[in-house]
Amino acid sequence: MNENRNKRNDKLAEKIIAGLASRNMTGYYVQTKEEALKKALELIPEGSKVTKGGSMSVLEIGLDKALKEGNYDYCDRDATTDKRAAELFAYSADVFLGSTNAITEDGVLINIDGNSNRVSAYAFGPKKLVLIVGMNKVAGDVDAAMKRARNEAATINAQRFGLQTPCSKTGACMDCKSPDTICCQFLITRFSRHKDRIHVILVNDSLGF
């Protein structure tokens, strides 16, 4: 990554972490995927009940693979035929893994979901959230973060899943009511009532969508 962009990201990460702290959430900043994996594993005690949403960022840093090979009670929803049981496992999990569709410079998390299992687990259920967030997901404010979530994250995911939504054809949100829409539930996380529940690992890299 360009040296000047690195300097900018370093300073911006400081602002985001301070914003997260003001919202009773904990932030960390690392330079590489390898460092992100190490930090994530530090936050997941061995023997923990762990599961994840459909996060590409979790896969990209190798966390999914590390959990499968480690000493964890890991429910891999991608490897089971009973998707609903895997989704319900999240609510009693010690740790739920994921990312965020966007994060503001002052630490607000924006997420959009179709089936809503991910955003519902973010809001309540698992004891701890560990979110892997590339600096590509940073937006200036809530409005900008919502636009990013709808026009970039949701659109790319609709294309990834082969859904027949207008955005998958146009590349931009059409505010549709398509049967395939994945913009069913919107979650704005502006504060965590429970200290030490939400942990955000910012990575100086482009991860996920």
Write structural notes for this entry.
This protein starts with a helix and ends in a 6-residue tail after the last strand. Strand 5 (102-104) and strand 6 (109-113) form a beta hairpin. It has a single domain (3-203), classed as NagB/RpiA/CoA transferase-like (Rossmann fold, 3-Layer(aba) Sandwich), CATH 3.40.50.10420. It contains eight helices and ten strands. Helix content is 38%, strand content 21%. The strands form two sheets. It has a six-stranded parallel β-sheet, sandwiched between helices. A four-stranded mixed β-sheet has the order 8-5-6-9, with helices on both faces. The chain has 209 residues and is α/β, with parallel strands linked by helices.
CATH topology: Rossmann fold
CATH classification, class level: Alpha Beta
Query: Helical element count?
Result: 8
Please identify the structural class as seen in this structure.
Answer: alpha/beta
Q: Which quaternary structure do these chains form? A: single chain
How much helical structure, as a percent, in the residues?
Answer: 25-40%
State the end-to-end CA separation.
Answer: 18 Å
pLDDT < 50 stretches: none
Query: What is the average per-residue confidence, as pLDDT, rounded to a whole number?
Result: 95
Architecture in CATH? 3-Layer(aba) Sandwich
Strand residue percentage = 15-25%
Based on CA atoms alone, the radius of gyration comes out at 16 Å
Taken together, the total number of domains comes to 1
> How can the largest sheet be summarized?
6 strands, parallel
Following the backbone from N to C, one meets helices and strands in this order, namely HEHEHHEHEEEHEEHHEE
Biggest sheet: strand arrangement: 1-10-7-4-2-3
